[in-house]
Amino acid sequence: MTKKDASLSQRVRAIPLLGYCLVWLKALIRLPVTRQQHTFALADLERRIGLQAEDLRRLHERVDALEPLLELVYVQVVEQTNRTVQAAESGLSKRLQQYDMLDLGARVMRLEKKVGSREFRTLLHRASRYSESPDKNKKRVDEAPTELTKMASPEHSLSAETSHAILVNPRPVQSQSPSTFDVDAFYYEFEQAFRGDEYAIAQRQRVYIDYLQDFLTLSKSDRSLFVDLGCGRGEWLSLLKEIGIPALGIDLNADKVQACRAIGLQAEVADALGFLSQQASDSLGGVTAFHLIEHISFESLIALFDSAYRALRPGGILIFETPNPENLITGACNFYYDPSHLKPIVPDVAVFMAKQRGFAKAQIVRLNPFEDHYQLPETDASARVLNQYLFGPRDYALIARK
């Protein structure tokens, strides 16, 4: 930088000796101002330090105040976690006990069958030995069938020692007169006791109205007859009458038919297969049967599908309701409340039968699960599985179209 371009201050400072003295003189003159500026800066710095110290003090106070609360929350979380773990362990233990009991029950049933079979064979073998000397053991041989019948009954389970005692020391058997058992009266009273309230059943059957909408759109003169096989007390017939669909009930039980007629319903005493075989082809709008197919043999069930298919008009509907064996309580216990039940039918098999016998469409509608208060809290997958298989739908309906 040249002297020409330098500032005045630099030019003055460049003067030998005089410039140096003038610079120091200027510094001495500005010293009070500079000191005051530094004093203000220090005061501002001290103020800021004081504010930061106050903020830090308040922060410590807040931390001190929160520390007991955090400690309390920590204790509560630990206690809640322990309770949750204990409840989960308790629930798991109960479920394991339930599984063990289910498995134990199945093993006991298998063992009882095996033991019963062995005792039965042993008794037959001993009976055949006694029959080799008819004169000497005629009385014992005559009594053996009676004792065998007793052993086969659920009320009287025999051990091997008891079986031996029967043949070695037989008790005299009193003859009984033939039974005058009235099957119709028995089954009518049985249904009154175990079938359930008629109003409740009718309300449950209203679910099927949604599947009859195409019939309800027809004029009354164009609505074909519905036939309800095994009409029972007439709950379904009453519902069909209410919505304006002509219906006829068929039942072998004369007492039930008379009960239907007494409330103004159309019903006849007839065999289901025999009645369907007498109907003209393509004449019926619907064939329904509620809790009937579990009463008949496999061959009769196939014949029922065939007869219903022939009698139904195109677009006609088939509704078969039956106990649902997917529900373990139903399949293993409640199904056998009715002594005339033969065997449960798996839903997929029912659909297969319908399609294999010619029905164009077939579907399963699962119905009537156990009430909510039976259900386990679904806190995990095992509870959901138990609810599904123990408290799920107790019945199902096969709904097929021709």
UniProtKB/TrEMBL annotation:
It comes from the Bacteria. Residues 132-143 have a biased composition (Basic and acidic residues). GO terms for biological process: methylation. Gene3D superfamilies: Vaccinia Virus protein VP39. It comes from Undibacterium fentianense. Keywords: Methyltransferase, Transferase. GO terms for molecular function: methyltransferase activity. This is Class I SAM-dependent methyltransferase. Residues 131-155 are annotated as: Disordered.
